[in-house]
Write a structure and sequence with these properties.
Blueprint: H1 8-26, H2 40-64, H3 71-107, H4 115-122, H5 137-163
Helix pairs in contact: 1-2, 2-3, 2-5, 3-4, 3-5
Length: about 170
């Protein structure tokens, strides 16, 4: 049984809706200078939503190559899997765990005493980043995988469009 045997309306809702909803959520993503000053409720809401929306967006891109075979389709599917896994792991730690710690710090009588615990997550080279590595490894891995998967899906669309005698870019 084909995992993508959805009705046309559900397929369109997935392919358009998941990435669009993720883009809307990203509009509300706080970018703090000092983590202890961020709005923890908004931060947590955004990161909880991302845990669902990253894999759904990966599934949406993979759905674009439904029923396709070959190297590009395989690259797309594998890359979207890597994107989903790495960004869920990254967002769970750097987003949710950091947000929970910041929220607890803000509600405590001494928020500054929480800074070492928050920084342990926030500056971790795999989960959060560090002075030696500007971006967290999982974020870089996921970003590269998303780019590779999207390019592979686009290549398939261009090839299919050219075979049909029309440009799939218009």
């Amino acid at each position: 049984m084909n995992a993508f045997s959805l009705s046309a309306a559900l397929r369109i809702a997935l392919i358009v809706g998941a990435p669009l909803l993720l883009a809307v959520v990203e509009l509300f993503h706080p970018h703090p200078g000092d983590l202890l000053d961020l709005n923890a409720k908004t931060w947590l809401a955004v990161h909880y939503a991302q845990i669902l929306l990253f894999p759904l967006s990966a599934l949406a891109v993979a759905a674009l190559v439904n029923n396709q075979v070959g190297v590009a389709a395989t690259i797309c599917r594998v890359a979207m899997f890597v994107f989903a896994i790495s960004f869920v792991a990254f967002d769970s730690a750097a987003g949710v765990v950091t947000g929970i710690l910041v929220d607890a710090a803000q509600r405590s009588p001494g928020p500054g005493t929480w800074r070492a615990a928050i920084d342990a997550i926030w500056t971790h080279p795999i989960m959060g980043g560090s002075p030696l590595i500007a971006a967290p490894f999982l974020a870089v891995l996921g970003s590269v995988a998303l780019s590779v998967g999207a390019v592979a899906a686009a290549a398939i669309g261009i090839i299919l469009g050219s075979r049909a005698g029309r440009s799939s870019l218009t």
